[in-house]
Amino acid sequence: MQVSFTHTPNFITQLLPRIRSVPFTVVKCSSMAINNNNNNTVKVAAAQMTSINDLTSNFNTCSLLVQEAVAAGAKLLCFPENFSFVGAKDGDSIKIAETLDGPIMQKYCSLARESNIWLSLGGFQEKGPDDTHLCNTHVLIDDTGNIRSTYRKIHLFDVAVPGGTVYKESSFTEAGKNIVAVDSPFGRLGLTVCYDLRFPEVYQQLRFQHQAQVLLVPAAFTKITGEAHWEILLRARAIETQCYVIAAAQAGKHNEKRESYGDTLIIDPWGKVVGRVPDRLSTGIAVADIDFSLIDSVRTKMPISEHRKPLDFWKAASL
Q1: 275 close to 266: Cβ distance less than 8 angstroms
Q2: Catalytic pick among 126, 194, 223, 259
Q3: Among the options 153, 174, 223, 243, which is catalytic?
Q4: Cβ-contact 213, 244 below 8 angstroms
Q5: CATH superfamily to which 41-303 belongs
Q6: Which candidate in 81, 126, 174, 259 is catalytic?
Protein backbone atom coordinates (compact mmCIF):
# COMPACT_ATOMS: atom_id res chain seq x y z
CA MET A 1 0.00 0.00 0.00
CA GLN A 2 1.24 3.47 -0.80
CA VAL A 3 -0.10 6.82 0.33
CA SER A 4 1.14 10.13 -0.99
CA PHE A 5 0.29 13.74 -1.68
CA THR A 6 0.85 14.26 -5.39
CA HIS A 7 0.31 17.96 -4.83
CA THR A 8 0.06 20.14 -1.75
CA PRO A 9 -3.52 19.84 -0.45
CA ASN A 10 -5.40 22.97 0.51
CA PHE A 11 -5.48 22.05 4.17
CA ILE A 12 -1.68 21.92 4.28
CA THR A 13 -1.41 25.24 2.46
CA GLN A 14 -3.76 26.80 4.98
CA LEU A 15 -2.19 25.19 8.01
CA LEU A 16 1.53 25.63 7.43
CA PRO A 17 1.65 29.43 7.52
CA ARG A 18 0.10 29.25 10.93
CA ILE A 19 1.47 26.92 12.46
CA ARG A 20 36.53 2.74 5.76
CA SER A 21 36.47 -0.20 8.10
CA VAL A 22 36.67 1.07 11.66
CA PRO A 23 36.23 -0.65 15.03
CA PHE A 24 32.67 -0.39 16.26
CA THR A 25 31.02 -0.79 19.59
CA VAL A 26 27.34 -1.55 19.92
CA VAL A 27 24.66 0.17 21.93
CA LYS A 28 21.78 -2.18 22.63
CA CYS A 29 18.27 -1.52 23.89
CA SER A 30 16.87 -4.93 24.74
CA SER A 31 13.95 -4.03 26.96
CA MET A 32 11.52 -5.02 24.21
CA ALA A 33 11.76 -8.39 22.53
CA ILE A 34 11.82 -8.83 18.78
CA ASN A 35 8.31 -9.12 17.41
CA ASN A 36 6.96 -12.41 18.68
CA ASN A 37 3.27 -11.85 18.06
CA ASN A 38 1.20 -14.50 16.36
CA ASN A 39 0.96 -12.05 13.47
CA ASN A 40 3.79 -12.37 10.96
CA THR A 41 3.42 -8.86 9.60
CA VAL A 42 3.41 -5.31 10.91
CA LYS A 43 2.68 -2.16 8.93
CA VAL A 44 5.26 0.63 8.71
CA ALA A 45 5.54 3.91 6.82
CA ALA A 46 8.26 6.18 5.48
CA ALA A 47 7.84 9.91 4.99
CA GLN A 48 8.96 12.24 2.21
CA MET A 49 9.09 15.99 2.77
CA THR A 50 10.91 19.21 1.94
CA SER A 51 12.17 20.68 5.19
CA ILE A 52 13.02 24.38 5.37
CA ASN A 53 14.55 26.79 7.88
CA ASP A 54 11.36 27.02 9.92
CA LEU A 55 10.99 24.69 12.90
CA THR A 56 7.26 25.29 13.28
CA SER A 57 6.38 24.69 9.62
CA ASN A 58 8.42 21.49 9.56
CA PHE A 59 6.74 20.24 12.75
CA ASN A 60 3.32 20.95 11.25
CA THR A 61 4.24 18.99 8.12
CA CYS A 62 5.47 16.09 10.27
CA SER A 63 2.23 16.19 12.29
CA LEU A 64 0.16 15.90 9.11
CA LEU A 65 2.26 13.00 7.89
CA VAL A 66 1.81 11.27 11.25
CA GLN A 67 -1.96 11.62 10.81
CA GLU A 68 -1.67 10.04 7.36
CA ALA A 69 0.41 7.15 8.71
CA VAL A 70 -1.97 6.47 11.59
CA ALA A 71 -4.95 6.52 9.23
CA ALA A 72 -3.15 3.99 7.02
CA GLY A 73 -2.64 1.67 9.99
CA ALA A 74 1.13 2.12 10.32
CA LYS A 75 2.70 1.52 13.72
CA LEU A 76 6.06 3.10 12.83
CA LEU A 77 6.71 6.22 10.75
CA CYS A 78 10.24 7.00 9.60
CA PHE A 79 11.20 10.60 8.82
CA PRO A 80 14.16 11.73 6.69
CA GLU A 81 17.42 13.30 7.76
CA ASN A 82 17.04 16.94 8.85
CA PHE A 83 13.29 16.47 9.27
CA SER A 84 13.01 19.31 11.79
CA PHE A 85 15.24 21.91 10.11
CA VAL A 86 17.29 22.65 7.00
CA GLY A 87 19.30 25.83 7.25
CA ALA A 88 19.35 28.45 4.51
CA LYS A 89 22.91 29.51 5.22
CA ASP A 90 26.03 28.28 6.99
CA GLY A 91 25.72 28.27 10.75
CA ASP A 92 21.93 28.07 10.91
CA SER A 93 21.90 24.46 12.11
CA ILE A 94 24.40 25.19 14.88
CA LYS A 95 22.22 28.03 16.14
CA ILE A 96 19.10 25.86 16.55
CA ALA A 97 20.85 22.71 17.83
CA GLU A 98 19.45 21.43 21.13
CA THR A 99 19.89 18.62 23.61
CA LEU A 100 17.49 15.69 23.32
CA ASP A 101 15.55 16.89 26.35
CA GLY A 102 15.04 20.33 24.78
CA PRO A 103 11.72 21.70 23.53
CA ILE A 104 12.17 20.68 19.87
CA MET A 105 12.59 16.95 20.51
CA GLN A 106 10.05 17.00 23.30
CA LYS A 107 7.40 18.19 20.82
CA TYR A 108 8.10 15.13 18.69
CA CYS A 109 7.96 12.89 21.77
CA SER A 110 4.54 14.34 22.55
CA LEU A 111 3.47 13.82 18.94
CA ALA A 112 4.41 10.13 19.13
CA ARG A 113 2.61 9.67 22.45
CA GLU A 114 -0.56 11.51 21.40
CA SER A 115 -0.70 9.64 18.09
CA ASN A 116 0.22 6.25 19.59
CA ILE A 117 2.91 5.62 16.97
CA TRP A 118 6.66 4.97 16.96
CA LEU A 119 8.77 7.60 15.20
CA SER A 120 12.20 7.27 13.61
CA LEU A 121 13.71 10.75 13.49
CA GLY A 122 17.02 11.01 11.74
CA GLY A 123 19.02 13.00 11.82
CA PHE A 124 18.27 15.60 14.41
CA GLN A 125 20.56 18.57 15.09
CA GLU A 126 21.65 17.56 18.59
CA LYS A 127 23.82 20.02 20.50
CA GLY A 128 27.44 18.93 20.18
CA PRO A 129 30.52 18.95 22.41
CA ASP A 130 31.20 22.65 21.80
CA ASP A 131 29.58 25.77 20.35
CA THR A 132 30.82 25.08 16.82
CA HIS A 133 29.72 21.45 16.42
CA LEU A 134 26.50 19.46 16.55
CA CYS A 135 25.74 15.74 16.28
CA ASN A 136 23.65 14.40 13.41
CA THR A 137 21.52 12.11 15.57
CA HIS A 138 18.97 9.46 14.61
CA VAL A 139 16.39 9.29 17.40
CA LEU A 140 13.92 6.44 17.87
CA ILE A 141 10.81 7.29 19.91
CA ASP A 142 8.24 4.72 21.03
CA ASP A 143 4.46 5.11 21.11
CA THR A 144 4.51 6.31 24.71
CA GLY A 145 6.76 9.22 23.76
CA ASN A 146 9.95 7.84 25.27
CA ILE A 147 13.29 7.93 23.47
CA ARG A 148 14.24 4.28 22.98
CA SER A 149 17.58 4.71 21.25
CA THR A 150 19.89 7.19 19.55
CA TYR A 151 22.55 6.82 16.88
CA ARG A 152 25.03 9.54 15.94
CA LYS A 153 26.05 9.54 12.28
CA ILE A 154 29.47 7.96 11.83
CA HIS A 155 30.30 8.83 8.22
CA LEU A 156 30.26 12.57 7.54
CA PHE A 157 29.59 13.98 4.08
CA ASP A 158 32.84 15.68 3.07
CA VAL A 159 32.40 15.43 -0.69
CA ALA A 160 32.88 17.41 -3.88
CA VAL A 161 29.72 16.57 -5.83
CA PRO A 162 29.94 16.57 -9.63
CA GLY A 163 28.85 19.98 -10.80
CA GLY A 164 30.99 22.01 -8.42
CA THR A 165 29.23 21.92 -5.03
CA VAL A 166 31.51 21.04 -2.12
CA TYR A 167 30.11 19.76 1.17
CA LYS A 168 32.07 19.67 4.43
CA GLU A 169 29.81 18.18 7.10
CA SER A 170 32.75 17.60 9.43
CA SER A 171 33.29 21.36 9.71
CA PHE A 172 30.25 21.60 11.99
CA THR A 173 29.42 17.99 12.95
CA GLU A 174 31.01 15.65 15.46
CA ALA A 175 31.15 12.09 14.08
CA GLY A 176 29.59 9.27 16.06
CA LYS A 177 31.55 6.22 17.20
CA ASN A 178 28.91 3.61 18.04
CA ILE A 179 26.89 1.29 15.86
CA VAL A 180 23.34 0.90 17.14
CA ALA A 181 20.80 -1.92 16.94
CA VAL A 182 17.58 -1.95 18.97
CA ASP A 183 14.70 -4.37 19.51
CA SER A 184 11.18 -3.20 18.67
CA PRO A 185 7.74 -4.47 17.69
CA PHE A 186 8.97 -4.11 14.08
CA GLY A 187 11.87 -6.48 14.51
CA ARG A 188 15.44 -5.67 15.39
CA LEU A 189 16.24 -2.27 13.90
CA GLY A 190 19.60 -1.08 12.64
CA LEU A 191 19.95 2.71 12.82
CA THR A 192 22.00 4.64 10.24
CA VAL A 193 21.92 8.05 8.52
CA CYS A 194 22.30 9.02 4.85
CA TYR A 195 26.00 8.89 3.83
CA ASP A 196 26.45 5.73 5.94
CA LEU A 197 24.68 4.01 3.04
CA ARG A 198 27.91 4.02 1.01
CA PHE A 199 29.76 1.97 3.64
CA PRO A 200 28.50 -1.62 3.51
CA GLU A 201 30.57 -2.70 6.51
CA VAL A 202 28.16 -0.81 8.78
CA TYR A 203 25.24 -2.86 7.48
CA GLN A 204 27.24 -6.08 7.57
CA GLN A 205 27.93 -5.38 11.24
CA LEU A 206 24.28 -4.64 11.92
CA ARG A 207 23.08 -7.85 10.28
CA PHE A 208 25.73 -10.41 11.13
CA GLN A 209 27.05 -9.14 14.46
CA HIS A 210 23.90 -7.54 15.87
CA GLN A 211 21.10 -9.51 14.19
CA ALA A 212 19.26 -6.60 12.54
CA GLN A 213 16.13 -7.43 10.57
CA VAL A 214 15.16 -3.93 9.42
CA LEU A 215 17.63 -1.22 8.40
CA LEU A 216 16.61 2.44 8.72
CA VAL A 217 18.24 4.88 6.30
CA PRO A 218 16.89 8.43 6.74
CA ALA A 219 18.54 10.62 4.14
CA ALA A 220 18.88 13.90 2.30
CA PHE A 221 20.73 12.74 -0.81
CA THR A 222 21.70 15.45 -3.26
CA LYS A 223 19.89 15.52 -6.59
CA ILE A 224 23.02 14.47 -8.50
CA THR A 225 24.12 11.62 -6.23
CA GLY A 226 20.54 10.44 -5.79
CA GLU A 227 19.95 10.15 -9.52
CA ALA A 228 23.13 8.11 -9.87
CA HIS A 229 23.15 5.86 -6.82
CA TRP A 230 20.20 6.12 -4.37
CA GLU A 231 18.02 3.13 -5.32
CA ILE A 232 20.98 0.97 -6.36
CA LEU A 233 22.70 1.35 -3.01
CA LEU A 234 19.52 0.76 -1.01
CA ARG A 235 18.63 -2.41 -2.87
CA ALA A 236 22.20 -3.65 -2.56
CA ARG A 237 22.12 -3.16 1.22
CA ALA A 238 18.82 -5.05 1.41
CA ILE A 239 20.04 -7.94 -0.74
CA GLU A 240 23.43 -8.42 0.89
CA THR A 241 22.01 -8.32 4.44
CA GLN A 242 18.63 -9.98 3.72
CA CYS A 243 16.94 -7.18 5.68
CA TYR A 244 14.09 -4.82 5.02
CA VAL A 245 15.35 -1.31 4.27
CA ILE A 246 13.23 1.75 5.09
CA ALA A 247 14.63 4.85 3.40
CA ALA A 248 12.83 8.12 4.16
CA ALA A 249 14.03 10.94 1.92
CA GLN A 250 14.14 14.70 1.76
CA ALA A 251 12.81 15.90 -1.60
CA GLY A 252 12.95 19.04 -3.72
CA LYS A 253 14.34 22.55 -3.19
CA HIS A 254 14.86 23.59 0.42
CA ASN A 255 16.31 26.96 -0.54
CA GLU A 256 18.27 28.57 -3.36
CA LYS A 257 21.41 26.60 -2.54
CA ARG A 258 20.12 23.16 -1.60
CA GLU A 259 18.03 20.53 -3.37
CA SER A 260 17.39 16.90 -2.37
CA TYR A 261 16.67 13.93 -4.61
CA GLY A 262 13.68 12.41 -2.82
CA ASP A 263 12.30 8.95 -3.79
CA THR A 264 11.30 7.48 -0.44
CA LEU A 265 11.49 3.66 -0.60
CA ILE A 266 10.73 0.53 1.41
CA ILE A 267 12.60 -2.55 0.16
CA ASP A 268 12.19 -6.19 1.18
CA PRO A 269 14.99 -8.71 1.96
CA TRP A 270 14.96 -9.99 -1.64
CA GLY A 271 15.68 -6.49 -2.93
CA LYS A 272 12.15 -5.79 -4.18
CA VAL A 273 10.69 -2.31 -3.78
CA VAL A 274 7.46 -2.84 -1.80
CA GLY A 275 6.70 0.78 -0.92
CA ARG A 276 7.36 4.04 -2.72
CA VAL A 277 5.97 7.57 -2.79
CA PRO A 278 4.83 7.68 -6.45
CA ASP A 279 5.94 11.28 -7.03
CA ARG A 280 9.64 11.56 -6.25
CA LEU A 281 9.30 15.20 -5.14
CA SER A 282 5.92 15.22 -3.40
CA THR A 283 5.19 15.38 0.32
CA GLY A 284 3.65 12.10 1.45
CA ILE A 285 4.22 8.62 2.82
CA ALA A 286 4.91 5.14 1.53
CA VAL A 287 3.38 2.24 3.46
CA ALA A 288 4.33 -1.45 3.48
CA ASP A 289 4.23 -4.54 5.68
CA ILE A 290 7.28 -5.96 7.40
CA ASP A 291 6.79 -9.70 6.82
CA PHE A 292 8.83 -11.68 9.33
CA SER A 293 8.10 -14.97 7.57
CA LEU A 294 9.67 -13.53 4.41
CA ILE A 295 12.82 -12.57 6.32
CA ASP A 296 13.05 -16.12 7.69
CA SER A 297 12.36 -17.68 4.31
CA VAL A 298 14.98 -15.67 2.43
CA ARG A 299 17.60 -16.34 5.09
CA THR A 300 16.80 -20.06 5.30
CA LYS A 301 16.86 -20.67 1.55
CA MET A 302 20.05 -18.68 1.04
CA PRO A 303 21.96 -18.99 4.34
CA ILE A 304 24.68 -16.44 3.68
CA SER A 305 25.28 -16.01 7.42
CA GLU A 306 26.57 -19.60 7.44
CA HIS A 307 28.61 -19.20 4.27
CA ARG A 308 30.45 -16.01 5.24
CA LYS A 309 34.16 -16.35 5.90
CA PRO A 310 35.65 -15.08 9.17
CA LEU A 311 38.16 -12.23 9.11
CA ASP A 312 40.99 -14.66 9.82
CA PHE A 313 40.25 -16.43 6.54
CA TRP A 314 40.84 -13.25 4.53
CA LYS A 315 44.04 -12.44 6.41
CA ALA A 316 45.44 -15.80 5.45
CA ALA A 317 44.15 -15.59 1.88
CA SER A 318 45.94 -12.28 1.30
CA LEU A 319 49.41 -13.69 1.95
Answers
A1: yes
A2: 194
A3: 153
A4: yes
A5: Carbon-nitrogen hydrolase (3.60.110.10)
A6: 81
> Which contacts (CB < 8 Å, 24+ apart) does range 203-209 have?
203/237, 203/240, 203/241, 203/243, 204/240, 204/241, 205/24, 205/179, 206/179, 206/181, 206/241, 206/243, 207/241, 207/242, 207/243, 207/305, 208/241, 208/305, 208/308, 209/26
81 is known as an active-site residue: yes
d(CA 312, CA 227): 38
**Sign of the torsion angle spanned by Cα atoms 122, 255, 91, 24:** positive
pLDDT in tens, 115-133: 999 999 989 999 999 999 9
The structural domains of the chain, with segments of one domain joined by +, span: 41-303
- pLDDT tens digits for range 165-217: 899 999 999 999 999 999 999 999 999 999 999 999 999 999 999 999 999 99
Our answer to whether residue 194 is catalytic in this structure is yes
Known catalytic membership, residue 231:
no
For the chain, give percent helix, strand, coil, nearest 5: 30, 30, 40
